Predict the 3D structure of the following.
Amino acid sequence: MKALMTAWLSALLLSFTALAQADLTIEITRGSDEATPIAVVPFATDGGELPEDLAQVISDDLERSGFFAPLARDAMFDRPASGEEVRYGEWQALDVRYLVVGRVSRDGEGYRIRYELMDVSGGERMLGENITTAGTSGLRDVAHYISDQVFEEITGIRGAFSTRIAYVTAQGVGDNQQFGLYVADADGHNSRRVLDSREPILSPAWSPDGQKLAYVSFETERPAIYVQELASGQRVRVSSFEGLNGAPAWSPDGRRLAMSLSKDGQPEIYVMNIADRSVQRLTNSSAIDTEPDWAPDGESLLFTSDRSGGPQIYRHDLASGEQERLTFTGSYNARGRFAPDGESIFLIHRSDSGYQVARQDLESGRLVVLSETRWDESPSVAPNGTMVIFATRQGNSGVLSAVSADGSASYRLPSAQGEVREPAWSPFLN
Amino acid sequence: MQFKSHARTLAVAFSLALVAGCSSTGGTQDGSMDSSRGGAGTGTAGTGQVSGSGIGADGERIGQQADGRIPEVRTIYFEYDSDTIKSEFESVLTAHARYLRGNGNARVVLQGHTDERGTREYNMALGERRAGAVQRFLEVQGVSPSQLEIVSYGEERPAVRGHGEDAYAQNRRVVFAY
Protein backbone atom coordinates (compact mmCIF):
# COMPACT_ATOMS: atom_id res chain seq x y z
CA MET A 1 0.00 0.00 0.00
CA LYS A 2 2.75 2.37 0.95
CA ALA A 3 4.69 1.48 -2.17
CA LEU A 4 1.60 2.14 -4.22
CA MET A 5 1.14 5.50 -2.57
CA THR A 6 4.73 6.50 -3.29
CA ALA A 7 4.35 5.51 -6.90
CA TRP A 8 1.20 7.56 -7.13
CA LEU A 9 2.86 10.57 -5.57
CA SER A 10 5.79 10.44 -7.91
CA ALA A 11 3.38 10.12 -10.81
CA LEU A 12 1.73 13.29 -9.58
CA LEU A 13 5.08 15.02 -9.33
CA LEU A 14 5.96 13.87 -12.80
CA SER A 15 2.77 15.21 -14.27
CA PHE A 16 3.29 18.48 -12.48
CA THR A 17 6.77 18.79 -13.94
CA ALA A 18 5.40 17.92 -17.33
CA LEU A 19 2.86 20.71 -17.02
CA ALA A 20 5.31 23.33 -15.84
CA GLN A 21 7.58 22.69 -18.82
CA ALA A 22 6.47 21.97 -22.34
CA ASP A 23 9.58 22.36 -24.45
CA LEU A 24 9.28 21.73 -28.14
CA THR A 25 11.85 20.09 -30.37
CA ILE A 26 12.63 20.91 -33.98
CA GLU A 27 12.41 18.56 -36.95
CA ILE A 28 13.32 20.00 -40.34
CA THR A 29 10.70 18.77 -42.81
CA ARG A 30 11.82 20.56 -45.96
CA GLY A 31 15.09 22.31 -46.82
CA SER A 32 15.38 24.92 -49.51
CA ASP A 33 17.39 24.14 -52.66
CA GLU A 34 18.56 27.73 -52.61
CA ALA A 35 20.05 27.48 -49.13
CA THR A 36 23.50 29.03 -48.81
CA PRO A 37 26.27 26.66 -47.62
CA ILE A 38 27.77 27.82 -44.34
CA ALA A 39 29.97 26.19 -41.70
CA VAL A 40 29.63 26.95 -38.01
CA VAL A 41 32.80 25.55 -36.46
CA PRO A 42 32.46 24.27 -32.85
CA PHE A 43 33.66 27.10 -30.61
CA ALA A 44 36.98 26.60 -28.87
CA THR A 45 36.96 26.54 -25.06
CA ASP A 46 39.45 26.81 -22.24
CA GLY A 47 39.02 23.12 -21.77
CA GLY A 48 35.98 22.92 -19.51
CA GLU A 49 32.62 21.52 -20.58
CA LEU A 50 30.07 24.22 -21.49
CA PRO A 51 26.40 23.95 -20.57
CA GLU A 52 25.47 24.78 -24.17
CA ASP A 53 27.05 23.99 -27.51
CA LEU A 54 26.89 27.48 -29.01
CA ALA A 55 27.93 26.48 -32.52
CA GLN A 56 25.20 23.83 -32.60
CA VAL A 57 22.53 26.32 -31.50
CA ILE A 58 23.70 28.82 -34.14
CA SER A 59 23.87 26.14 -36.82
CA ASP A 60 20.33 24.93 -35.96
CA ASP A 61 19.01 28.51 -36.04
CA LEU A 62 20.49 29.17 -39.46
CA GLU A 63 19.30 25.86 -40.88
CA ARG A 64 15.75 26.35 -39.55
CA SER A 65 15.49 29.66 -41.39
CA GLY A 66 15.71 27.90 -44.72
CA PHE A 67 18.30 30.44 -45.90
CA PHE A 68 21.31 28.35 -44.92
CA ALA A 69 22.57 24.79 -45.29
CA PRO A 70 25.13 24.27 -42.50
CA LEU A 71 27.97 21.87 -43.13
CA ALA A 72 27.90 18.71 -41.02
CA ARG A 73 30.56 18.62 -38.32
CA ASP A 74 32.12 15.40 -39.46
CA ALA A 75 32.84 17.04 -42.82
CA MET A 76 34.98 19.70 -41.13
CA PHE A 77 38.62 18.78 -41.56
CA ASP A 78 39.76 21.80 -39.59
CA ARG A 79 38.47 23.64 -36.55
CA PRO A 80 39.82 27.18 -36.53
CA ALA A 81 38.93 29.23 -33.43
CA SER A 82 39.62 32.63 -34.96
CA GLY A 83 39.70 34.33 -38.36
CA GLU A 84 43.49 34.29 -38.41
CA GLU A 85 43.51 30.48 -38.30
CA VAL A 86 41.21 30.05 -41.29
CA ARG A 87 42.74 28.43 -44.41
CA TYR A 88 40.26 29.71 -46.98
CA GLY A 89 41.26 27.45 -49.86
CA GLU A 90 40.27 24.33 -47.98
CA TRP A 91 36.79 25.70 -47.14
CA GLN A 92 36.38 26.85 -50.74
CA ALA A 93 37.05 23.28 -51.82
CA LEU A 94 34.05 22.24 -49.69
CA ASP A 95 31.87 24.83 -51.45
CA VAL A 96 31.31 26.63 -48.14
CA ARG A 97 30.46 30.28 -48.72
CA TYR A 98 30.61 31.54 -45.14
CA LEU A 99 32.31 30.46 -41.96
CA VAL A 100 31.47 31.21 -38.32
CA VAL A 101 34.25 30.66 -35.79
CA GLY A 102 34.53 31.52 -32.11
CA ARG A 103 35.93 30.93 -28.66
CA VAL A 104 34.33 30.81 -25.20
CA SER A 105 36.33 31.50 -22.07
CA ARG A 106 35.45 32.01 -18.40
CA ASP A 107 35.28 35.63 -17.39
CA GLY A 108 34.70 36.22 -13.70
CA GLU A 109 31.24 34.84 -12.84
CA GLY A 110 30.26 34.51 -16.48
CA TYR A 111 31.68 33.91 -19.92
CA ARG A 112 33.47 35.87 -22.58
CA ILE A 113 32.51 34.90 -26.12
CA ARG A 114 34.33 36.03 -29.23
CA TYR A 115 32.93 35.16 -32.65
CA GLU A 116 33.82 36.05 -36.23
CA LEU A 117 32.00 35.66 -39.55
CA MET A 118 34.26 35.05 -42.54
CA ASP A 119 33.45 35.36 -46.23
CA VAL A 120 35.13 32.28 -47.66
CA SER A 121 35.14 33.24 -51.34
CA GLY A 122 36.40 36.76 -50.64
CA GLY A 123 38.82 35.52 -48.01
CA GLU A 124 37.94 38.24 -45.54
CA ARG A 125 36.27 38.90 -42.23
CA MET A 126 32.74 40.32 -42.31
CA LEU A 127 31.96 40.50 -38.58
CA GLY A 128 33.75 40.17 -35.29
CA GLU A 129 32.48 40.85 -31.78
CA ASN A 130 33.15 40.18 -28.11
CA ILE A 131 30.23 39.39 -25.80
CA THR A 132 30.30 38.86 -22.04
CA THR A 133 27.62 37.28 -19.87
CA ALA A 134 26.93 38.24 -16.28
CA GLY A 135 26.43 34.65 -15.11
CA THR A 136 26.71 31.13 -16.42
CA SER A 137 23.18 31.07 -17.80
CA GLY A 138 22.20 32.87 -20.95
CA LEU A 139 24.56 31.08 -23.34
CA ARG A 140 21.65 30.11 -25.58
CA ASP A 141 20.64 33.77 -25.72
CA VAL A 142 24.19 34.63 -26.83
CA ALA A 143 24.00 31.96 -29.54
CA HIS A 144 20.67 33.33 -30.82
CA TYR A 145 22.17 36.82 -30.79
CA ILE A 146 25.12 35.64 -32.91
CA SER A 147 22.67 33.91 -35.30
CA ASP A 148 20.82 37.23 -35.64
CA GLN A 149 24.05 39.09 -36.49
CA VAL A 150 25.25 36.48 -38.99
CA PHE A 151 21.81 36.25 -40.63
CA GLU A 152 21.47 40.01 -41.05
CA GLU A 153 25.05 40.52 -42.27
CA ILE A 154 24.59 37.97 -45.06
CA THR A 155 20.93 38.35 -46.05
CA GLY A 156 20.33 42.00 -45.22
CA ILE A 157 17.24 40.89 -43.26
CA ARG A 158 17.05 41.36 -39.52
CA GLY A 159 17.34 38.01 -37.72
CA ALA A 160 14.43 36.77 -35.59
CA PHE A 161 16.23 34.06 -33.62
CA SER A 162 16.12 35.93 -30.31
CA THR A 163 12.33 36.06 -30.40
CA ARG A 164 9.87 33.87 -28.55
CA ILE A 165 6.67 32.02 -29.24
CA ALA A 166 3.53 31.66 -27.16
CA TYR A 167 1.35 28.57 -27.56
CA VAL A 168 -1.45 26.63 -25.94
CA THR A 169 -1.29 23.01 -24.83
CA ALA A 170 -4.30 20.76 -24.30
CA GLN A 171 -4.46 17.39 -22.64
CA GLY A 172 -7.32 15.02 -21.97
CA VAL A 173 -10.83 14.96 -23.35
CA GLY A 174 -14.34 15.94 -22.25
CA ASP A 175 -14.59 17.23 -18.70
CA ASN A 176 -11.04 16.24 -17.87
CA GLN A 177 -9.27 18.61 -20.19
CA GLN A 178 -6.32 20.66 -19.01
CA PHE A 179 -5.14 23.71 -20.91
CA GLY A 180 -1.83 25.54 -20.61
CA LEU A 181 -0.52 28.79 -22.02
CA TYR A 182 3.26 28.77 -22.52
CA VAL A 183 6.01 31.03 -23.73
CA ALA A 184 9.26 29.56 -25.12
CA ASP A 185 12.25 30.64 -27.16
CA ALA A 186 11.61 30.62 -30.91
CA ASP A 187 13.44 27.26 -31.11
CA GLY A 188 11.08 25.71 -28.53
CA HIS A 189 13.57 25.74 -25.62
CA ASN A 190 13.16 27.37 -22.19
CA SER A 191 9.40 26.96 -22.11
CA ARG A 192 7.64 28.60 -19.21
CA ARG A 193 4.01 28.28 -18.20
CA VAL A 194 2.06 31.51 -18.16
CA LEU A 195 -1.36 30.14 -17.25
CA ASP A 196 -3.09 26.83 -16.70
CA SER A 197 -6.77 26.15 -16.63
CA ARG A 198 -9.37 23.42 -16.85
CA GLU A 199 -11.23 25.63 -19.30
CA PRO A 200 -10.18 26.51 -22.87
CA ILE A 201 -7.48 29.09 -23.59
CA LEU A 202 -7.01 30.47 -27.09
CA SER A 203 -5.87 33.34 -29.31
CA PRO A 204 -2.73 34.54 -27.48
CA ALA A 205 -1.44 37.82 -28.93
CA TRP A 206 1.82 39.62 -28.06
CA SER A 207 1.79 43.29 -27.23
CA PRO A 208 4.06 45.24 -29.62
CA ASP A 209 6.61 45.78 -26.82
CA GLY A 210 6.75 42.02 -26.19
CA GLN A 211 5.96 42.42 -22.50
CA LYS A 212 2.34 41.34 -22.39
CA LEU A 213 0.03 38.71 -23.81
CA ALA A 214 -3.65 39.20 -24.54
CA TYR A 215 -5.64 35.97 -24.75
CA VAL A 216 -9.09 34.45 -24.45
CA SER A 217 -9.77 32.28 -21.41
CA PHE A 218 -12.96 30.45 -20.46
CA GLU A 219 -11.96 30.17 -16.79
CA THR A 220 -15.23 31.81 -15.68
CA GLU A 221 -17.06 29.39 -18.01
CA ARG A 222 -17.64 32.33 -20.31
CA PRO A 223 -15.16 33.68 -22.86
CA ALA A 224 -13.29 36.76 -21.69
CA ILE A 225 -10.20 38.61 -22.89
CA TYR A 226 -7.31 39.01 -20.46
CA VAL A 227 -4.09 40.99 -20.69
CA GLN A 228 -1.19 39.52 -18.72
CA GLU A 229 2.18 41.05 -18.04
CA LEU A 230 4.77 38.32 -18.53
CA ALA A 231 7.44 39.51 -16.09
CA SER A 232 5.12 39.93 -13.08
CA GLY A 233 2.31 37.55 -14.03
CA GLN A 234 -0.18 40.32 -13.20
CA ARG A 235 -3.23 40.30 -15.36
CA VAL A 236 -6.50 42.07 -15.93
CA ARG A 237 -9.74 40.98 -17.54
CA VAL A 238 -10.31 43.68 -20.11
CA SER A 239 -13.36 42.34 -21.93
CA SER A 240 -16.19 40.23 -20.55
CA PHE A 241 -19.23 41.49 -22.37
CA GLU A 242 -22.23 39.26 -22.79
CA GLY A 243 -21.65 36.75 -25.58
CA LEU A 244 -18.47 36.29 -27.51
CA ASN A 245 -15.26 38.02 -26.44
CA GLY A 246 -12.64 36.83 -28.89
CA ALA A 247 -9.69 37.26 -31.22
CA PRO A 248 -7.74 40.07 -29.50
CA ALA A 249 -5.26 41.92 -31.75
CA TRP A 250 -2.96 44.75 -30.60
CA SER A 251 -2.66 48.01 -32.44
CA PRO A 252 0.95 48.81 -33.45
CA ASP A 253 1.09 51.53 -30.77
CA GLY A 254 0.00 49.04 -28.09
CA ARG A 255 -2.81 51.28 -26.84
CA ARG A 256 -5.76 49.56 -28.45
CA LEU A 257 -7.05 46.04 -28.88
CA ALA A 258 -9.19 45.01 -31.82
CA MET A 259 -11.52 42.15 -30.91
CA SER A 260 -14.68 40.35 -31.90
CA LEU A 261 -17.69 40.90 -29.62
CA SER A 262 -21.26 39.69 -30.02
CA LYS A 263 -22.73 41.88 -27.28
CA ASP A 264 -24.95 43.64 -29.82
CA GLY A 265 -26.08 40.49 -31.61
CA GLN A 266 -23.79 39.11 -34.30
CA PRO A 267 -20.00 38.94 -33.81
CA GLU A 268 -18.65 42.32 -34.90
CA ILE A 269 -15.19 43.90 -34.90
CA TYR A 270 -14.61 46.46 -32.15
CA VAL A 271 -11.59 48.47 -31.10
CA MET A 272 -11.02 48.90 -27.38
CA ASN A 273 -9.03 51.75 -25.94
CA ILE A 274 -7.14 49.81 -23.27
CA ALA A 275 -6.68 52.79 -20.92
CA ASP A 276 -10.39 53.50 -20.40
CA ARG A 277 -11.87 50.25 -21.82
CA SER A 278 -14.15 52.15 -24.17
CA VAL A 279 -15.06 50.26 -27.32
CA GLN A 280 -15.81 51.49 -30.79
CA ARG A 281 -17.64 49.30 -33.29
CA LEU A 282 -16.13 48.99 -36.78
CA THR A 283 -18.38 46.51 -38.58
CA ASN A 284 -22.11 46.35 -38.92
CA SER A 285 -23.36 43.27 -40.72
CA SER A 286 -25.68 40.39 -40.04
CA ALA A 287 -22.75 38.06 -40.70
CA ILE A 288 -19.86 36.78 -38.57
CA ASP A 289 -17.03 39.32 -38.34
CA THR A 290 -13.98 38.10 -36.42
CA GLU A 291 -10.20 37.52 -36.46
CA PRO A 292 -9.01 41.12 -36.79
CA ASP A 293 -5.35 41.94 -37.45
CA TRP A 294 -3.84 45.41 -37.52
CA ALA A 295 -1.87 46.61 -40.54
CA PRO A 296 1.76 47.46 -39.62
CA ASP A 297 1.06 51.15 -40.34
CA GLY A 298 -1.97 51.08 -38.03
CA GLU A 299 -4.24 52.54 -40.67
CA SER A 300 -6.34 49.51 -41.53
CA LEU A 301 -7.44 46.15 -40.15
CA LEU A 302 -7.96 42.74 -41.70
CA PHE A 303 -10.88 40.63 -40.56
CA THR A 304 -12.74 37.46 -41.51
CA SER A 305 -16.40 37.77 -42.50
CA ASP A 306 -18.92 35.37 -43.98
CA ARG A 307 -21.09 38.22 -45.32
CA SER A 308 -20.64 36.81 -48.83
CA GLY A 309 -21.82 33.36 -47.75
CA GLY A 310 -18.56 31.73 -46.65
CA PRO A 311 -15.59 33.12 -44.75
CA GLN A 312 -13.43 35.55 -46.71
CA ILE A 313 -10.92 38.20 -45.67
CA TYR A 314 -11.80 41.87 -45.70
CA ARG A 315 -9.91 45.06 -44.99
CA HIS A 316 -11.37 47.93 -42.99
CA ASP A 317 -9.82 51.34 -43.61
CA LEU A 318 -9.88 53.27 -40.34
CA ALA A 319 -9.88 56.76 -41.86
CA SER A 320 -12.67 56.24 -44.38
CA GLY A 321 -14.51 53.39 -42.70
CA GLU A 322 -14.63 51.60 -46.04
CA GLN A 323 -14.52 47.83 -46.15
CA GLU A 324 -13.09 45.92 -49.08
CA ARG A 325 -13.04 42.20 -49.78
CA LEU A 326 -9.49 40.95 -50.39
CA THR A 327 -9.75 37.19 -51.02
CA PHE A 328 -11.54 35.63 -53.99
CA THR A 329 -9.66 32.35 -54.51
CA GLY A 330 -11.77 29.47 -53.22
CA SER A 331 -14.69 29.35 -50.80
CA TYR A 332 -12.84 29.52 -47.47
CA ASN A 333 -10.18 32.07 -46.56
CA ALA A 334 -9.82 33.06 -42.91
CA ARG A 335 -7.58 34.40 -40.16
CA GLY A 336 -5.54 36.80 -42.22
CA ARG A 337 -2.26 38.12 -40.82
CA PHE A 338 -0.25 40.94 -42.36
CA ALA A 339 3.36 40.44 -43.40
CA PRO A 340 5.50 43.01 -41.52
CA ASP A 341 5.95 45.03 -44.74
CA GLY A 342 2.16 45.19 -45.17
CA GLU A 343 2.43 44.05 -48.80
CA SER A 344 1.07 40.55 -48.42
CA ILE A 345 -1.11 38.59 -46.02
CA PHE A 346 -0.86 35.08 -44.65
CA LEU A 347 -4.09 33.18 -44.13
CA ILE A 348 -5.83 29.81 -43.90
CA HIS A 349 -7.12 28.71 -47.28
CA ARG A 350 -9.33 25.69 -47.89
CA SER A 351 -7.92 23.91 -50.91
CA ASP A 352 -8.75 20.55 -52.46
CA SER A 353 -6.37 18.97 -49.95
CA GLY A 354 -7.68 20.65 -46.82
CA TYR A 355 -7.02 23.74 -44.74
CA GLN A 356 -3.58 25.13 -45.59
CA VAL A 357 -1.40 28.13 -44.89
CA ALA A 358 -1.31 30.45 -47.88
CA ARG A 359 0.08 33.86 -48.75
CA GLN A 360 -1.69 36.42 -50.87
CA ASP A 361 0.10 39.33 -52.48
CA LEU A 362 -2.10 42.37 -51.91
CA GLU A 363 -1.15 44.17 -55.10
CA SER A 364 -1.71 41.30 -57.54
CA GLY A 365 -4.27 39.41 -55.46
CA ARG A 366 -2.41 36.19 -56.25
CA LEU A 367 -2.75 33.47 -53.61
CA VAL A 368 -0.08 30.79 -53.12
CA VAL A 369 -0.41 27.78 -50.82
CA LEU A 370 2.73 27.45 -48.69
CA SER A 371 2.26 24.41 -46.47
CA GLU A 372 2.23 20.73 -47.36
CA THR A 373 0.08 19.84 -44.37
CA ARG A 374 -3.71 19.62 -44.53
CA TRP A 375 -5.21 20.68 -41.21
CA ASP A 376 -3.56 24.00 -40.64
CA GLU A 377 -4.81 26.85 -38.49
CA SER A 378 -3.66 29.94 -36.57
CA PRO A 379 -0.82 31.29 -38.76
CA SER A 380 1.46 33.80 -37.02
CA VAL A 381 4.22 35.65 -38.83
CA ALA A 382 7.80 36.10 -37.59
CA PRO A 383 8.59 39.77 -37.00
CA ASN A 384 11.06 39.76 -39.91
CA GLY A 385 8.48 38.20 -42.22
CA THR A 386 10.64 35.25 -43.26
CA MET A 387 8.64 32.46 -41.58
CA VAL A 388 5.08 31.70 -40.55
CA ILE A 389 4.38 29.45 -37.58
CA PHE A 390 1.03 27.65 -37.47
CA ALA A 391 -0.79 24.76 -35.84
CA THR A 392 -1.39 21.55 -37.74
CA ARG A 393 -1.75 17.83 -37.15
CA GLN A 394 0.79 15.07 -37.14
CA GLY A 395 -1.00 11.74 -36.89
CA ASN A 396 -3.66 12.32 -34.28
CA SER A 397 -1.83 14.99 -32.36
CA GLY A 398 -1.77 18.74 -32.72
CA VAL A 399 1.73 20.11 -33.42
CA LEU A 400 3.23 23.42 -34.36
CA SER A 401 4.89 23.79 -37.72
CA ALA A 402 6.57 26.62 -39.56
CA VAL A 403 7.05 27.36 -43.22
CA SER A 404 9.17 29.99 -44.94
CA ALA A 405 7.34 32.91 -46.53
CA ASP A 406 8.08 31.51 -50.00
CA GLY A 407 7.17 27.95 -49.02
CA SER A 408 10.64 26.60 -49.80
CA ALA A 409 11.53 25.42 -46.29
CA SER A 410 9.61 24.09 -43.33
CA TYR A 411 10.04 22.52 -39.92
CA ARG A 412 7.91 20.99 -37.19
CA LEU A 413 7.99 21.57 -33.43
CA PRO A 414 6.61 18.43 -31.81
CA SER A 415 5.97 18.24 -28.09
CA ALA A 416 6.33 15.24 -25.84
CA GLN A 417 3.05 16.10 -24.11
CA GLY A 418 -0.39 16.40 -25.61
CA GLU A 419 -1.68 18.81 -28.18
CA VAL A 420 0.10 22.02 -29.01
CA ARG A 421 -1.77 24.78 -30.82
CA GLU A 422 -2.40 28.51 -31.15
CA PRO A 423 1.17 29.69 -31.77
CA ALA A 424 1.90 33.40 -31.61
CA TRP A 425 5.29 34.70 -32.71
CA SER A 426 6.59 37.54 -30.57
CA PRO A 427 7.77 40.88 -31.93
CA PHE A 428 11.51 41.66 -31.86
CA LEU A 429 12.53 41.68 -28.22
CA ASN A 430 15.94 43.34 -28.43
CA MET B 1 -34.89 2.36 -11.12
CA GLN B 2 -37.86 0.90 -12.84
CA PHE B 3 -39.87 4.01 -12.12
CA LYS B 4 -37.17 6.39 -13.34
CA SER B 5 -36.93 4.66 -16.63
CA HIS B 6 -40.71 4.72 -16.92
CA ALA B 7 -40.79 8.47 -16.19
CA ARG B 8 -38.25 9.14 -18.87
CA THR B 9 -40.29 7.23 -21.33
CA LEU B 10 -43.29 9.29 -20.38
CA ALA B 11 -41.38 12.53 -20.66
CA VAL B 12 -40.32 11.74 -24.17
CA ALA B 13 -43.79 10.55 -25.01
CA PHE B 14 -45.13 13.83 -23.84
CA SER B 15 -42.72 15.86 -25.87
CA LEU B 16 -43.76 13.89 -28.90
CA ALA B 17 -47.36 14.67 -28.17
CA LEU B 18 -46.55 18.34 -27.81
CA VAL B 19 -44.75 18.43 -31.12
CA ALA B 20 -47.62 16.70 -32.78
CA GLY B 21 -49.79 19.47 -31.43
CA CYS B 22 -47.55 22.45 -32.17
CA SER B 23 -45.56 21.62 -35.22
CA SER B 24 -46.83 22.20 -38.70
CA THR B 25 -44.26 19.79 -40.04
CA GLY B 26 -45.59 16.79 -38.19
CA GLY B 27 -45.26 13.29 -39.44
CA THR B 28 -41.54 12.68 -39.07
CA GLN B 29 -41.33 12.69 -35.32
CA ASP B 30 -41.11 8.97 -34.73
CA GLY B 31 -38.21 8.47 -37.05
CA SER B 32 -36.46 11.60 -35.96
CA MET B 33 -36.65 10.66 -32.32
CA ASP B 34 -34.70 7.52 -33.08
CA SER B 35 -32.04 9.32 -35.03
CA SER B 36 -31.67 11.93 -32.34
CA ARG B 37 -30.94 9.24 -29.80
CA GLY B 38 -28.53 7.50 -32.10
CA GLY B 39 -26.58 10.63 -32.82
CA ALA B 40 -26.65 11.95 -29.31
CA GLY B 41 -25.09 9.14 -27.44
CA THR B 42 -26.76 10.70 -24.43
CA GLY B 43 -30.20 9.22 -24.80
CA THR B 44 -31.41 6.57 -22.41
CA ALA B 45 -32.54 3.11 -23.19
CA GLY B 46 -36.25 2.76 -23.51
CA THR B 47 -37.08 6.15 -24.93
CA GLY B 48 -37.13 4.99 -28.50
CA GLN B 49 -39.96 2.54 -28.15
CA VAL B 50 -42.70 5.06 -27.56
CA SER B 51 -45.38 5.08 -30.14
CA GLY B 52 -47.74 7.93 -30.78
CA SER B 53 -50.79 5.83 -30.01
CA GLY B 54 -49.80 5.35 -26.37
CA ILE B 55 -49.83 9.04 -25.52
CA GLY B 56 -53.45 9.88 -25.43
CA ALA B 57 -54.38 7.31 -22.82
CA ASP B 58 -53.36 9.33 -19.81
CA GLY B 59 -52.22 12.62 -21.23
CA GLU B 60 -52.93 14.75 -18.18
CA ARG B 61 -50.86 12.72 -15.78
CA ILE B 62 -48.02 12.45 -18.29
CA GLY B 63 -48.00 16.21 -18.64
CA GLN B 64 -47.55 16.81 -14.94
CA GLN B 65 -44.61 14.47 -14.73
CA ALA B 66 -42.93 15.89 -17.78
CA ASP B 67 -43.18 19.41 -16.35
CA GLY B 68 -41.24 18.47 -13.26
CA ARG B 69 -38.27 16.87 -14.94
CA ILE B 70 -35.56 18.28 -17.15
CA PRO B 71 -35.90 16.56 -20.51
CA GLU B 72 -33.52 13.67 -20.87
CA VAL B 73 -32.11 14.44 -24.32
CA ARG B 74 -29.92 17.52 -23.88
CA THR B 75 -27.85 17.56 -27.03
CA ILE B 76 -28.88 18.26 -30.60
CA TYR B 77 -26.69 18.00 -33.70
CA PHE B 78 -26.09 20.07 -36.80
CA GLU B 79 -24.93 19.66 -40.37
CA TYR B 80 -21.53 20.95 -41.44
CA ASP B 81 -21.36 24.76 -41.51
CA SER B 82 -25.07 24.99 -40.65
CA ASP B 83 -27.10 26.44 -37.81
CA THR B 84 -30.39 25.11 -39.15
CA ILE B 85 -32.31 23.10 -36.58
CA LYS B 86 -33.03 19.77 -38.17
CA SER B 87 -36.66 18.76 -38.02
CA GLU B 88 -35.75 15.59 -36.14
CA PHE B 89 -34.63 17.70 -33.19
CA GLU B 90 -37.60 20.00 -32.99
CA SER B 91 -39.27 17.61 -30.58
CA VAL B 92 -36.26 17.83 -28.26
CA LEU B 93 -36.37 21.61 -28.29
CA THR B 94 -40.11 21.63 -27.78
CA ALA B 95 -39.71 19.44 -24.71
CA HIS B 96 -37.18 21.86 -23.26
CA ALA B 97 -39.42 24.80 -24.09
CA ARG B 98 -42.28 23.11 -22.27
CA TYR B 99 -40.09 22.41 -19.27
CA LEU B 100 -38.73 25.97 -19.11
CA ARG B 101 -42.19 27.51 -19.46
CA GLY B 102 -43.46 25.30 -16.68
CA ASN B 103 -40.47 26.05 -14.43
CA GLY B 104 -39.95 29.79 -14.47
CA ASN B 105 -36.97 29.60 -12.12
CA ALA B 106 -35.09 27.15 -14.29
CA ARG B 107 -32.21 28.57 -16.27
CA VAL B 108 -30.22 26.91 -18.99
CA VAL B 109 -26.95 27.68 -20.72
CA LEU B 110 -27.07 26.75 -24.39
CA GLN B 111 -23.53 25.65 -25.27
CA GLY B 112 -22.70 25.85 -28.95
CA HIS B 113 -19.97 23.63 -30.41
CA THR B 114 -18.40 23.00 -33.81
CA ASP B 115 -16.18 20.34 -35.29
CA GLU B 116 -12.46 21.03 -35.54
CA ARG B 117 -12.29 22.07 -39.17
CA GLY B 118 -11.52 25.68 -39.94
CA THR B 119 -10.10 28.45 -37.82
CA ARG B 120 -10.76 28.61 -34.08
CA GLU B 121 -12.23 32.06 -33.71
CA TYR B 122 -14.43 31.64 -36.77
CA ASN B 123 -15.65 28.39 -35.24
CA MET B 124 -16.28 30.26 -32.00
CA ALA B 125 -18.69 32.46 -33.96
CA LEU B 126 -20.28 29.45 -35.71
CA GLY B 127 -20.90 27.79 -32.34
CA GLU B 128 -22.56 30.93 -31.10
CA ARG B 129 -24.75 31.02 -34.19
CA ARG B 130 -25.92 27.47 -33.46
CA ALA B 131 -26.70 28.27 -29.84
CA GLY B 132 -28.48 31.42 -31.03
CA ALA B 133 -30.69 29.40 -33.36
CA VAL B 134 -31.76 27.23 -30.42
CA GLN B 135 -32.32 30.31 -28.28
CA ARG B 136 -34.61 31.87 -30.89
CA PHE B 137 -36.54 28.63 -31.27
CA LEU B 138 -37.15 28.48 -27.52
CA GLU B 139 -38.15 32.13 -27.32
CA VAL B 140 -40.66 31.68 -30.14
CA GLN B 141 -42.06 28.82 -28.07
CA GLY B 142 -42.67 31.25 -25.24
CA VAL B 143 -39.60 30.70 -23.05
CA SER B 144 -38.55 33.85 -21.21
CA PRO B 145 -35.25 35.29 -22.52
CA SER B 146 -34.13 35.67 -18.91
CA GLN B 147 -34.00 31.87 -18.58
CA LEU B 148 -31.62 31.47 -21.48
CA GLU B 149 -27.94 32.19 -21.94
CA ILE B 150 -25.73 31.18 -24.81
CA VAL B 151 -22.03 30.35 -24.63
CA SER B 152 -20.04 29.17 -27.60
CA TYR B 153 -17.08 26.87 -27.08
CA GLY B 154 -16.31 26.68 -30.79
CA GLU B 155 -14.09 23.65 -31.40
CA GLU B 156 -12.44 23.88 -27.97
CA ARG B 157 -14.48 21.22 -26.18
CA PRO B 158 -15.05 18.31 -28.52
CA ALA B 159 -17.42 15.61 -27.25
CA VAL B 160 -15.24 12.97 -28.89
CA ARG B 161 -11.70 12.90 -30.20
CA GLY B 162 -11.13 11.80 -33.73
CA HIS B 163 -10.78 13.31 -37.13
CA GLY B 164 -13.41 11.59 -39.27
CA GLU B 165 -16.96 12.47 -40.20
CA ASP B 166 -18.31 10.33 -37.32
CA ALA B 167 -16.44 12.41 -34.77
CA TYR B 168 -17.25 15.66 -36.52
CA ALA B 169 -20.97 14.84 -36.53
CA GLN B 170 -20.93 14.22 -32.78
CA ASN B 171 -19.03 17.45 -32.12
CA ARG B 172 -21.31 19.81 -34.10
CA ARG B 173 -23.85 20.29 -31.37
CA VAL B 174 -25.72 22.45 -28.92
CA VAL B 175 -25.85 21.19 -25.34
CA PHE B 176 -28.49 22.20 -22.79
CA ALA B 177 -26.56 22.81 -19.57
CA TYR B 178 -29.05 23.31 -16.71
The two ends of chain A are 54 Å apart (CA to CA).
